[in-house]
Amino acid sequence: MYHIEGRHAKKEIVEKYVIALTRALKINRLSSKLVLIQFKTKLDNEAQGLCMGDKTYAAIQIGKSGQTFLQQMQALAHEMVHAKQFLRGELNCEGAWKWKGRMADGYEYMNQPWEKEAYRLERDLFLDCFPFQLLD
Predict the structure, then answer these.
(1) Residue 65 and residue 42: Cα distance in Å, rounded?
(2) pLDDT at 66 over 80
(3) What does each C-alpha distance from 117 to 8, 15, 42 come to in angstroms?
């Protein structure tokens, strides 16, 4: 269901967090689908995180440069919302952006419906799912 690559600060915490996120987003039972999470030193355009995918997989990249561990984890919550959107077929980027079956090219970044949902959910997902008790 998920695979984590790259170096990150606290492996056990990240594993527990990803499991909790998949449950909260109700994608934990999609066993034939893959979420690949990669931690990279730096992403293009100084992005905090990126997600691409389709109905079978989602590939998430989290940038470490310029972000604290907790900021990386909040970015991961945001990108996991996008993973859910791809895996559930709500978001499609094959040829042109489609949101819930409708053409969605031309939106400014903050007006994209998939970004609105990710920004709306990321904070609560982070606060509800992150295993703060495991921090030193």
Answers:
(1) 5
(2) yes
(3) 26, 24, 25
Residue with tokens 């489609």: 98
Count of beta carbons in the 10 Å neighbourhood of residue 64: 20
State the residue for tokens 């900021």: 71
Which carries the bigger pLDDT value, residue 94 or residue 43? 43
In the chain, what is the straight-line distance between the N-terminal and C-terminal CA atoms, in Å? Answer: 28
Q: Please, what are the domains in the chain?
A: 2-134 (3.40.390)
In this prediction, residue 124 has a pLDDT band, given cuts at 50, 70 and 90, of very high
pLDDT, residue 89, reads: 96
136 pLDDT higher than 80: no
3-class SS string, the chain: CEEEECCCCCHHHHHHHHHHHHHHCCCCCCCCCEEEEEEECCCHHHCCEEEEECCCEEEEEEECCCCCHHHHHHHHHHHHHHHHHHHCCCEECCCCCEECCEECCCCCHHHCHHHHHHHHHHHHHHHHHCCHHHCC
Percent over 90 (pLDDT), the chain: 82
